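Appendix B. Raw example, untouched.
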Amino acid sequence: MKRDPELIRKMLLAVEALPKGFAPKLDLEGHTPEQVGYHAYLLIEAGYAKGAILTHMASPSPEARITSLTWKGHDFLEAARDPGRWEQAMKIVKEKGGGATLDVLKDLLVSLMTKAMLGS
């Protein structure tokens, strides 16, 4: 399964939007439970979220359940929150080769955010 930055952003936004910041189960329209579970696994492994790894021998793919965001997850989300900035960053990524790590994507988003704040 290919990593989907759009789904990652949706998941982080969904967890943050919960009143207590606790996300025992995420159901995101247009995405299968396997896609959400796999991306939850990736977010936990990368340190953007905390949660439980649920993978077992009968699992169709690695899977996990997010319980909360980490500081790193909140920082990424602050940079990725603005839809215009997100679209601009994704356009740059596609123009430069089509893929980027989350850390590179975050750096790009922070750069765009900084330019917007400084008015340059």
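End of appendix B.
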